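Record type: monomer structure entry
Structure origin: computed from sequence
Chain ID: A
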Amino acid sequence: MRTPIIAGNWKLFKKSGEAVELVSQLTHLVRDTKGVEIIIAPVFTVLSTVKPLIANSNIKLAAQNCFWEEEGAFTGEISPGMLMDAGCTHVIIGHSERRQYFGETDDKVNRKIKAAISSGLTVLFCIGETLAEREANCTFNVLRTQIEQGLSELAKSDLAKAVIAYEPVWAIGTGKTATDDQAQEAHAFIRGVVADLYDHTSAESIRILYGGSVKPENVKELMAQPDIDGALVGGASLKADSFAAIVNYLV
């Protein structure tokens, strides 16, 4: 039985005061939620502010990115150990916006994943195809390449600290959502690739999230699919009521 994950990626939103207000509301709204792992990923500058607010709650803390070195002359970067020191248990790596705007390659994503897992963080490893790639019928080739290269040199035991997030790039922030069938097809394929790389048990154990304009209105249908184990939520995670409604999709 794979425990569902609902993770909120705040992206470049919420200064300290706004973060405190959002988290204070959210902890109240999800305090009785059971059977779902709840994660929020604020900006770096408010991680330490948010941590004490969720210390006695059922919410876990993630960062949106990290570097692959623990320390050194790397101006502007944040190491896995620093994230753990700030209270993080999870980190998002390989988000399409990092790939698109900041030139992150599969090799860089792989180095970050290995460093984060080695430090004890659980990785939310993002993959997904662009609209052009989907229209060219390249979706499965793109996903396989991203998975193979992203998980390169990771042992089977490392998968316990890995979660895959499938985010079709054409559905992120566009209001478009993959149909239930499209999402399920991609998730089943991803699980199959993990089975090819490792084994059936590993594939059945790993959790695969869907991301891409997830809202309270569509989460229940997405979560009903057999290979979808949760959601990586963007815009709808910026309001406590909408994110709580997604978290409480079973209610």
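Annotation 1: The beta strands are 5-9, 37-41, 59-63, 90-93, 122-127, 162-166, 208-211, 230-233.
Annotation 2: The chain has a mean pLDDT of 96.
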